[in-house]
Structure formats: C-alpha cells, structure tokens
C-alpha cells in the first residue's frame, strides 16, 4: 500500500525545564496516583509495546533491558528473512528513512527527544508492578517515523509506523501524538491493526478544545487526555465525549536522549498516553488471552471518576483516572466484575450476574447532563428489568425483551434486575451520559433584569468560567435613574476574556462605557441612562475564576 506522506502534529513536550543525571525523582506522585499494587499471578506473559515516535536512545539506562529483538531476522545478512519488507529489522525500524537505525543522529538529541521520553514512562509504569522482574514480561518495539534529514519535528509517517508495528506483532501500539491527514489509507491501517486484537492508545490532543484528534478519534482507539496531581484537566489538553480516560500530564519525569543517564520533565497528553499504555501492558501481561474489550472494561470500569474536580468538563474526560489495584483485580478475578460498580462513572456497564435475589444499580454521576443513553449488550435471560427515573418506573419488562436502546432525560437512574433462579446467564447494559454544551454551563443567552439593585456574576461559583462563553445581562432600572456598577471580584484571562459595559440594550461602539479584563478590580462605572447591558465573552483556551458585580440605581443629576 502506498501511504501518502502526512504531517502529524506531535503533542510534544512543549518545554524542557532541565535535564537531570539521575532518576530518583521517578518515585513521584504521578506514578503513585495510579495505585499500582503487585498481586501474585501464575499466568504472566511477555507483552510487546510498540512506541511510534521520533527516535530512540536504545542505550539509555531505562530502555536498554527492554528493547525488542526480532528473532525472525538473522542479523546483518542484508536479507529480509521474515518477509515483512524490512531488511535486518532486528531492533525496530525507521519507516521514514527505510532502514533499521531507530537511533538519533548526533547533535539532534534535543529535537528527537520524544520517543525516548515516552518509552521510559511506559517502562516505569510497568516496573511499578513487576519490580526487578519487569524485563521478563515487557518488550519495547521502537518505531521511528521522523527522518534524520527533516528540518521539522512533526512526525511525517506516523500511520506508516502503526502499520509496521502491527505487522511485527505488537500487542499494544502507543501513539503519543495526534493530527495529520486521516483518509482511507490511514483508516485501513488502523482497522487492520484493530482486527488483529491489537490495542492502540493515542493522545486526544493538546489544542485546548472540545475535540479529539485523529488517530484517537477513530472508533476502537483508546483516546487519552491529561490531568494534574489534583485530577484537574491540564489547560491545553483536549476534552470531549470521545475521550476514554485520563492520566498524569503535568510535569512528568522521563528519560532524555542526550546521555544514557539523562532525564527531564515535560507535560501534555503525550505522557498521559504513555501512562495508559503502561497500565494496559500490565493488564495484558496478567491475562494475555484477554480481548481488547475485557482490557478496556478492567481499566475503565474501575477508574476513579474525576468530574467533581472538572465540572465544566463533566462527561468529557472519559471514565476518569486509573485505579490499577482494582483494574488488576478485575482482570485476574472473573467474578470481580459482578461485585464492583461505581455509580459516579459518567459512562460504563451495568453487569448483573446469576443471583437468587433482585439486584439494583444506581447510576448517579457528578455534574449536569442532558440525559442518559441505555444500550443492551447481553440480554439472554428472562428476568424482569425495571428502570427508575425520579422515583418513577420508566421501563419495565423482561430482559430478553429489552432489545433496543433508551434515552432518559435525567441525571440519575436506578436499574433493577429480577432474580435469576439458578441460571448462569447474565445481563449486561451499557450506558453513557449525554453531555451539555459547556459554553452554556454557567451563563448563556440574555438575562433581562428589571430591578434597582442586585448582584450579577458569571455564574461559575467556585469553578472557572467556561470557554467560549457568550452571556448578556440587560438591566433596566426605574425611570430617571442611572445605574452604578461596582465589581467585587474580577479574574479573567488578561486581554482575551472581557466584560463589556454598554449604555442601553445594544452593543454599539458609541454606547460602550468600559471593558475590563484581567485580575485588577475595575473602577466604579455609572451609566448615562436607566439601562445597561453587560456582555461577557471568553475564548477557546484559558479561563479564570470569574467575576461579580453589584448594581444599584442612583439619582440622575442633570
């Protein structure tokens, strides 16, 4: 297949703070947050994780014991022994330069830094579970997709790298980048890989916006966003209903390719993608025969919901944050899935196992939603099923009659499954919350106020106001009065997000009294008439704590 040259915007590493010659800081909170607890298992298997990226320092102290060796190739005989189209691809492949050198040319280490960094995070996550035994169960397949001769650091052949990783037999393919052209050729590569049961993990994007970029946007790929140590979405990370899960993405420590013992900090959804790839590698190694769906269930259904820390993004950060202790239990204990359920997950599965008693599950995620979608997955018994919304029965019938999905305009529902007397069958129901337009979460449209005094606020309370807010308040006081506006708080993105004050009810330039932005308290403003319009606008990116003002009608003095 001829693959078009594509340019993929790498989610990189925007800034390198410093380089360190030791890895003691690996024992940091970001790794601790994953709650990785080793448990005994007799079925551990070797897992191969392909890192599709810019280049690799294979001799780095973190990477050197984990590099995959292609046993189907005879080294240095200048032949394609395994007939995969690549000559002597012993330790990975450079698809851009069409050779077996995945290393970094001398002098360009600071440009080709991403692959080494990402690989090291995957390894360190894996080591948290296996310790000194980790090299027995993990191999990293380095796939270089940036030419030695390029002048830019954009990945040029990322999808071609996925194709190679798939053919060489990777179990997991880590794509800590996003962007670029996605046409039928790229889709065919992804579909072929997924059809083999390979798990692809990709970055949602670092573009501050409600969107998931390709390849993560493609069905079947795990889309990852990033949060800080307080579980709050990092500023630049994308968010969307298509996001599957989040991981640490703020000031993450990893290997740096300038030396075998060099390390650095960076941030974004790239390291978050590496964290999730490492988590999946652990689960796969513990149950190698598990299909992709079971791996996803183990990771997503046991995750820690984080919407309470991200109300603006409720339902748009996937299942939340990994809890690997629970995920491991899920993957090694077949019965665990029936006893574990978290009502706060904004999307997931309701699993009812064989039981002689009625079983109930409450779905009650934090945040505001338009409603909830219910979809049957496995309905193969004759037990009764009831779905309650606001204490009323929304649906009632036998589970084997529940064959189509439902949409319920509610933030909370209860599902009850009747007794399954002695049967081994089970009922599985999938659900996901329908999110609301975050731009209208706190304020929206026009609010008309006919009063001589009161308080107006952006509405976000303790949260930051929403991106892309467009909100207006039109105050009309008593005749022959003017309106005094006194801001009590003011915190918006400086010179970007503004509160405009107009005389009258129209946003005409000649009626503009003032415009305020930033964190300084504005002066008191008094209108020329008994009517004032307040107009609040924010952009796509950074938000602030918001603002509040008091208004009061005062005597008009001629």
Low-confidence residue ranges: 1-17
CA radius of gyration: 27 Å
- DSSP strand tally: 27
Largest sheet strand order: 3-4-2-5-6-7-8
CATH topology-level fold name of the largest domain: Rossmann fold
By CATH reckoning, the class of the largest domain would read Alpha Beta
**What proportion strand?**
25-35%
Helix content: 10-25%
**CATH homologous superfamily title of the largest domain:** Peptidase S8/S53 domain
- Tally of individual helices: 8
Report the CATH architecture of the largest domain: 3-Layer(aba) Sandwich
What would you call the shape?
A: globular
What's the quaternary structure here? single chain
Average pLDDT: 89
Outline the biggest β-sheet: 7 strands, parallel
What is the number of independent domains? 3
Give the N-terminus to C-terminus distance in angstroms.
81 Å
Which structural class best describes the helix and strand composition? alpha/beta
Explain how this protein is built.
There is one protein chain. The protein has 3 domains: 19-69 and 97-331, Peptidase S8/S53 domain (Rossmann fold), CATH 3.40.50.200; 341-436, Spermadhesin, CUB domain (Jelly Rolls, Sandwich); 439-555, Spermadhesin, CUB domain (Jelly Rolls). It is built from 8 helices and 27 strands. It has helices at residues 29-32, 114-130, 158-168, 184-195, 269-286, 292-300, 324-332, 336-339, and strands at residues 19-20, 47-53, 93-94, 138-144, 172-175, 199-203, 222-227, 245-248, 252-255, 263-266, 347-352, 359-363, 371-379, 384-389, 392-398, 406-408, 413-417, 427-434, 445-450, 453-457, 470-476, 481-491, 498-503, 512-516, 525-526, 531-537, 546-555. A 7-stranded parallel beta sheet has the order 3-4-2-5-6-7-8, sandwiched between helices. The chain has a 5-stranded mixed beta sheet with strand order 19-21-26-23-24, with no helix packed on it. Strands 11-18-13-16 form a 4-stranded antiparallel beta sheet, with no helix packed on it. A hairpin with a 7-residue loop joins strand 9 and strand 10 (263-266). The longest helix is centred in the middle third of the chain and has 18 residues, at 269-286. The termini are far apart.
């Amino acid at each position: 297949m001829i693959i078009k040259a594509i340019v993929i915007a790498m989610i990189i590493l925007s800034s390198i703070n410093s380089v360190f010659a030791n890895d003691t800081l690996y024992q940091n909170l970001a790794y601790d947050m994953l709650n990785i607890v080793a448990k005994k298992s007799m079925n551990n298997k070797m897992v191969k994780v392909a890192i599709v990226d810019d280049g690799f320092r294979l001799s780095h102290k973190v990477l050197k014991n984990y590099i995959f060796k292609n046993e189907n190739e005879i080294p240095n005989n200048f032949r394609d022994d395994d007939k995969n189209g690549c000559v002597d691809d012993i330790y990975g492949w450079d698809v851009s330069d069409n050779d077996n050198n995945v290393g970094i040319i001398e002098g360009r280490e600071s440009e080709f830094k991403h692959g080494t960094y990402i690989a090291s995070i995957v390894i360190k996550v894996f080591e948290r579970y296996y310790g000194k035994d980790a090299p027995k169960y993990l191999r990293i397949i380095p796939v270089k997709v940036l030419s030695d001769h390029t002048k830019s650091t954009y990945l040029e052949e990322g999808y071609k790298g996925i194709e190679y990783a798939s053919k060489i037999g990777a179990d997991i393919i880590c794509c800590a980048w996003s962007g670029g052209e996605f046409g039928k050729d790229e889709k065919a590569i992804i579909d072929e890989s997924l059809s083999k049961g390979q798990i692809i993990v990709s970055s949602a994007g670092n573009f501050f916006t409600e969107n998931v970029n390709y390849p993560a946007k493609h069905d079947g790929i795990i889309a990852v966003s990033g949060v800080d140590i307080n579980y709050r979405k990092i500023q630049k990370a994308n968010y969307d209903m298509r996001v599957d899960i989040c991981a640490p993405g703020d000031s993450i420590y990893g290997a740096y390719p300038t030396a075998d013992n060099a390390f650095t900090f960076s941030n974004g959804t790239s390291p978050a993608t590496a964290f999730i790839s490492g988590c999946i590698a652990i689960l796969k190694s513990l149950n190698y025969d598990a299909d992709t769906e079971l791996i996803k269930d183990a990771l997503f259904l046991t995750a820690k919901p984080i919407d309470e820390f991200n109300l603006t993004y409720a339902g748009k950060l996937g299942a939340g944050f990994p809890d690997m202790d629970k995920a491991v239990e899920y993957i090694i204990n077949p019965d665990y899935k029936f006893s574990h359920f978290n009502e706060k997950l904004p999307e997931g599965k309701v699993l009812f196992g064989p039981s002689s008693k009625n079983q109930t599950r409450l779905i009650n995620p934090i945040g505001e939603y338009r409603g909830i979608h219910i979809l049957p997955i496995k309905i193969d018994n004759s037990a009764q099923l009831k779905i309650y919304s606001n204490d009323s029965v929304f649906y009632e019938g036998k589970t084997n009659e529940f064959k189509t999905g439902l949409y319920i305009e509610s933030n909370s529902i209860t599902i009850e499954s009747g007794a399954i007397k002695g049967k081994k069958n089970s009922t599985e129901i999938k659900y996901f919350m329908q999110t609301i337009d975050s731009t209208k979460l706190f304020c929206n449209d026009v609010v008309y106020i006919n009063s001589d005094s009161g308080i107006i606020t952006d509405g976000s309370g303790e949260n930051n106001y929403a991106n892309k807010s467009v909100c207006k308040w039109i105050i009309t006081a008593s005749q022959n009065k003017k309106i005094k506006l006194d801001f009590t708080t003011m915190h918006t993105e400086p010179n970007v997000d503004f509160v405009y004050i107009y005389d009258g009810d129209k946003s005409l330039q000649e009626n503009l009294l003032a415009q305020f932005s930033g964190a300084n308290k504005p002066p008191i403003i008094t209108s020329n008439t008994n009517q004032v319009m307040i107009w609040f606008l924010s952009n796509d990116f950074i938000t602030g704590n918001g603002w509040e003002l008091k208004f009061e009608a005062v005597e008009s003095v001629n």
